[in-house]
Specification:
By secondary structure, this protein is an all-alpha fold. The chain is built from 6 helices and no strands.
Amino acid sequence: MWSDEALPGTGIDAASFWSGFAGLLAEFAASNKALLAKARCAAGEAGSWHAARKGEAHDAAAYEAFLREIGYLLPEPAAFKIDTANVDEEIAHIAGPQLVVPVSNARYALNAANARWGSLYDALYGTDAIPAGGTEGNGF
């Protein structure tokens, strides 16, 4: 069972975890069910809105107004600030692999992509995009 691998070292025993999880399900099941029903309704209304305008140029302002009317889009909330506390030292001071890197430094970009997705070199040369004997291929 996954809890045999995930819970050791956390100080949480399996019975407490599953009991807490069951409590969360009981607390939020009804509201989640209502939200899913609302999402299905909005999806149906949006589908009907698009079907009624088939062949017409898309009117972004009218579509936004429609989404606000059915309650899918809500007004922007007031400005707020988020602050963190009790963050692990490692996370607070050591940057992990990121894809936001200076575009002027190709090495940083390649390292970030490799850290996130594995080697781009392996991905490229594992395809037929570049034929074995040359640099121009018929692939993409």
